[in-house]
Amino acid sequence: MTERAIADRDIAGALCEQVRSAYDARTPLRIVGGDTRAFYGRPVEGQALQMAEHSGIVSYDPVELVVTVRAGTRLSDLQEVLAEKHQMLGFEPPMFGEASTIGGAVATGLSGPRRPWAGAARDFVLGTRIITQEGKLLRFGGEVMKNVAGYDLSRLMAGAQGTLGVLTDISFKVLPIPTATHSLRLTVGLDEALKKLAEPGRKPLPITAAAWHHGELFLRLEGGKSSVSATQASLGGEPLDANFWQELRDHTHAFFACNNGQALWRLSLPPNTAPLALDIPEADIFYDWAGSQRWVKTTLDASTLRDACRAVGGHATCYTPKLQGGAAEPFTPLNAVVGKYHRNLKAELDAHGIFNPGRLYAAF
């Protein structure tokens, strides 16, 4: 796979026309890329706006560490092109399937195991082209990191799930692939593991992924050869297959198979948060992001989980669709103040509610 092997197909004109017609007719649109993240959020009913054909690399400057790509481009194709130049997407986006697109990765705003050390998806977005509610194609941001006045729409689109406009092109800052990497596993209890997971914040260790599950601590070391080798010798442990992190990222690890009416939840918590007082077996909790992200399989109700997270300054998101036993509202309900901002922003950018209506919350 080379940069030229990804055919550049620009169908922005046709997409703008479809959005313009939907706006005039007040027709809801369901924005579809690879449709591999349809489980994430509330179901959307509307006319499909197909993005997969709008694909290709617009520009790529390995020296400046910047790539601009069309939203329908398959994530796997983009990663292959970057790897040829020994570069990568810093936020390590989950794929959830071969058809996964880069537009879907940004729209959901999800990041992989490297997130606490490298940054979130929105941190790597430099600029975008967006189709507005009136069917206009506008550019926001650029190809450099800089401050902006007013709404930073490019980064605002990360995690908005297509509710504020249609992403067509996205410019990213990319990172060099580390020269050395080594993954290892240590047999330790939860208390000791949490202490070890707190150390990277106090010591300059070359850790780029850290997780714990059922008596085992998993670490990924990346950086210069001498630094990785020295840390590996210091920590010890057994070698870990590097595919472990991909399985964790894409939810193909055996842990993510729910049964007996369980739903999969993601608990987002402040760093160094102690185990929550929840009636959940240890084997059904997977600690990721050095403990700040916890995957939980449980039959507990949404209010119990969310109350426990709220008490320590966190929140809970359900990854299991309602029809499969998940929560009716996958995302934590907004308080009055935040809800007001959401409604005002939605009204400004999508006055007729045509973009993925109800995807995040029933009201908008």
UniProtKB/TrEMBL annotation:
What are the EC numbers?
Answer: 1.1.99.14
Q: What is this protein called?
A: Glycolate oxidase subunit GlcE
Keywords of this protein's UniProt record, alphabetized?
FAD, Flavoprotein, Oxidoreductase
Residue ranges constituting the FAD-binding PCMH-type domain according to the UniProt record: 3-177
Q: What class of enzyme is it?
A: oxidoreductase
Molecular functions (GO terms): glycolate dehydrogenase activity
Q: Which PROSITE patterns match?
A: FAD_PCMH
| Record carries keyword GTP-binding | no
Q: Name one Pfam family in it.
A: FAD_binding_4
Q: What Gene3D superfamilies does the record point to? A: 3.30.465.10
Q: Is Magnesium set as a keyword in this record?
A: no
